[in-house]
Write the structure tokens for this entry.
Amino acid sequence: RGKLWLFDNGYFVPDTVEHNTIAVYRDGLFQPIPRLTALEARADLPGVGMTQTALRNYNGVDWRRNIIWSKERWFVVLDELTAREPGDFGAQCIFRVIGERELQPDRVLVRQGMARFALVTDGRPTWSVHEVTPPAGNRRGLFENQDARLAAGESMTFQNLFYCPEGSEDFPFEVLRAAPTCALVAGGDEVACVGAGKLQAEGLPVVDAA
């Protein structure tokens, strides 16, 4: 809709919370995000675009982010944090938004004038809202929080859906967790199965993608 909804404080700003990213804590300690990210896959198809990036050995986890774009409709962001070693992990999935916010337990609506931007989660994380640095009236950091005790090889995931509503409904699309790295996006009379890698979940097609 011609608006900037997510913003970043610049790539020379070292503080993790000043970016759209994930902060990982292990046993109460935080380490900076590694400098180099791997682009593992990308695709630009007629109706769908996709990327998969990976950050390895980030405070005891490997972080893989999958972005799936149903063109002109919505984005799904699937984040998977896999423990390289056991520990008590906390993770914050951070999105920095511009506009007036209406926060609900599993979603937020952001307004700039008549334009709207929706961020919908799968209901797993809890929310907190933080000021940005320097403070700005209509700019805030939205933090999605999860904690888990993980053994080596176990994962925690975040599943997020973004779009700009066009009709009278503020939330015409919903996202539901189908598997750790697979989500269902429902809107109108359509349901899309969105994910990365293998899928073996009851009631869904079996996928064994490389």
Q: What stands out?
A: The chain has no helices and 18 strands. The chain has a mean pLDDT of 92.
